[in-house]
Amino acid sequence: MSACVFAFILTLSALSRATVESGFVSPPTNVRLTSYNMNLVLRWSPPEGAASNLLYSTEYRTSVTEYSVGFVNISTLECDFTRLSHLFISEHGKYFGRVRAQVGSESSAWVESNNITLDKDTIIGSPNVSLISSGATIEVSIKDPVFAISALRNVYIYATYNITYWKHSQPEKARHISNIKQNPFVLNDLDPWTKYCVQVQINTERNPIPSKPSGIVCERTTNEEEADWVPALVSLIFSVAAMALVVIAVVYRKSISNILCPKDALPQHFKEYLLTPHKVSIITDDTSEDGSPLEATKMTCSKQLDVTVFVDGRTRDLTASEEQ
Questions:
Q1: 134-152, pLDDT tens digit by residue?
Q2: What is the 8-class DSSP label of residue 171?
Q3: Signal sequence: where (predicted)?
Q4: Which of the 8 DSSP states describes residue 123?
Q5: Largest CA distance in the chain
Q6: Regarding the domain delimited by 128-226, which CATH topology (the fold level of the hierarchy) does it fall under?
Q7: What is the mean pLDDT of residues 30-55?
Q8: Which of 18, 36, 119, 124 is the most buried (most CB within 10 A)?
Q9: pTM of the model
Q10: What gap in Å lies between CA 63 and CA 119, rounded to an integer?
Q11: Nearest alpha-carbon partner for 89 in 42, 143, 43
């Protein structure tokens, strides 16, 4: 019996040792400070056998300051210091971070990260690339990645581009152009009616690692001789059409005005018909039950017609009486 109790105690001790040792919470592991596009993110792994209610607190400092409070009582395994409104981050600053685990009122020891200098160690993301074909040339337009703080051209004044391009069917014969400062940049040694693909990276003097490469973008060249007259032809067609519409509007302005705004007029014969008296006769034919005619009486009645006529832009009420 005592052996079973002893084994149970050893098992319980082994399970709890990973999280709490001598009354203290085990610290996080694999603590590292990283930067992507000039953000400042502290990451870590939980201690082995961590409790489900484990929380973390973080702090940061520069090479010339003491640690300041970062995030407190968070459950995630990372935090971005650039999101702290009270923290001023310099693009050229050197930073450290640290984190500790907490369970209730107990906390682990602080675990400090590596240090990084933002402009030297940040990972620069991929630029965005767009292509415009014009004859047998392709214009390459490059949009720098967005930084968490500042802008790429403010941090890296002398940044340049590396452009790699190749025929779509021949990627093994790719060509490279380095240290390009122009943006946009024109590729002009291309074959007509050929599909080319382009990829771009950013180089900086302070950061030894180039940016992540852009996505591959492809565009087809056209015939250099035909390319120049196409825009001119389209412009000419639109100009001629516009001039023709103006001439038609001026020459036929009266006809167009009458069609769009017609004048209502009553025909003359209709006026005369309405003004002429008319007789109305009603004949009733009564028959007996056996079908023989009893009486044929021609009845007359008077009928008064009230008519409102629109004549020459004015209304006129007409009354015609009929009697027989």
A1: 989 999 999 999 999 999 9
A2: G
A3: 1-18
A4: B
A5: 138
A6: Immunoglobulin-like (2.60.40)
A7: 92
A8: 124
A9: 0.62
A10: 15
A11: 42
